[in-house]
Amino acid sequence: FKRIGEAEGAEQFAGAATAAFRKATNGPQFLKQVQAEGIDLKIISQEQEGTIGFLTASHACPEIAHTDLVAWDSGGGSLQITSVEIGALCSWLRTVGSSIATSLLVEQVQAKNFKDCPSPNPVSVPEAQALVRELRKAIGQPPEWLANKVEAPGVTVVGIGTDTSIFCLASQLAAKDEFSKADVLEGIENMCGKTDLQLRLMEDTHAAQAQPHNVVPKLVLLYTVMDILRINTVLNKQTNGNGAGIAMTREFWP
C-alpha cells in the first residue's frame, strides 16, 4: 500500500491498528516493524475506532445529516455502532466480530477445536440458530439511547467496510444496497448446507468467494445485532476500511 501511495504522489503515511493489535501479545512488536517501514501506525482504542468509523460513514453519505446517521463498523474482532446523542458522539462498543462469531460456532456449537477446524461449513440451520443464542449472550443488551435512536424517524443505519464486510456480503446476497433483517435471514437459510467449495464458486458474491469459512457466522452476527436493536434496514456503503476517517482525524497527521 505504501508503494502504491508513493506512486500516486503521497508524502505522508499513517494507519490505525485495531482489535487484532489490541488483543495480540505481539501487537506492539509487530507495530514497531511496520513503523520501521516509514508508516506511522498507531494502536487505537475501540472508542477512537468508533469515532473514525462515524467519520468514514459521514464521508460516504454526505446526503445524511450527522444527527440522522448511525454508523456501524464491524470487523473480525469487534463492532462499533456510533451516532450523535445530545450533541456529542456516543458509541456502543462490543468485542464481538466475525472471527469471534466463527470461533463460537466451531467451538461452542459444533464442539470442535477451532485450530484444527477453522471452517464450520457446511453449517446446518439448527447450528445457525444456536449461534444466534450464543451471540445474544456475548453481545448483551444495547444502551437505551441507541435503541431509541435507530427507531427514530429519518434515521439511517449505515454499515461500512471493505468488499468482504458483513454488510457487503448481505448486500450482494440480497442484490440491493439497503437490506432488511428478512433479507439477512433468507441469506442465512440459503448459505446453510453449503461447503467451502460451493461458496468459493459463487461468482456473483465476492465476499463469499474470498472468505467462505465465515459466511454464515457473518450473516448470523449481522442478523443478531439487527434483531437486538430492532433495526429495520441497513444501508451498505463499501469503503476502503476506515481510510476516510483516518484521513479526517488530525492526530494521525503531524
Description:
The chain has 254 residues and is α/β, with parallel strands linked by helices. It is 47% helix and 17% strand. It has 13 helices and eight strands. The protein has helices spanning 2-7, 19-23, 27-35, 46-60, 98-109, 125-139, 144-150, 166-174, 181-191, 196-200, 206-210, 215-229, 243-247, and strands at residues 14-17, 40-43, 69-74, 79-85, 88-94, 156-161, 178-180, 233-238. The strands form two sheets. A six-stranded mixed beta sheet has the order 5-4-3-6-8-7, with helices on both faces. A two-stranded parallel ribbon has the order 1-2. Helix 5 (98-109) packs across helix 12 (215-229). The model has no long low-confidence stretch (mean pLDDT 94).
Short description:
The chain has helices at residues 2-7, 19-23, 27-35, 46-60, 98-109, 125-139, 144-150, 166-174, 181-191, 196-200, 206-210, 215-229, 243-247; strands spanning 14-17, 40-43, 69-74, 79-85, 88-94, 156-161, 178-180, 233-238. With 254 residues, the protein is of the alpha/beta class.
What overall geometry do the principal axes of the alpha carbons give? globular
- Give me the secondary-structure category: alpha/beta
What percent of residues are in strands? Answer: 15-25%
The N- to C-terminal Cα distance equals 20 Å
The total of beta strands comes to 8
Q: Give the SSE order as H and E letters.
A: HEHHEHEEEHHHEHEHHHHEH
- Biggest β-sheet: count, sense, barrel? 6 strands, mixed
Q: What helical percentage do the residues reach?
A: 40-55%
* Low-pLDDT segments, ≥5 res: none
Q: Quickly count the helices.
A: 13
Widest β-sheet, arrangement of strands: 5-4-3-6-8-7
Radius of gyration computed on alpha carbons: 18 Å
Average pLDDT, rounded to a whole number, is 94
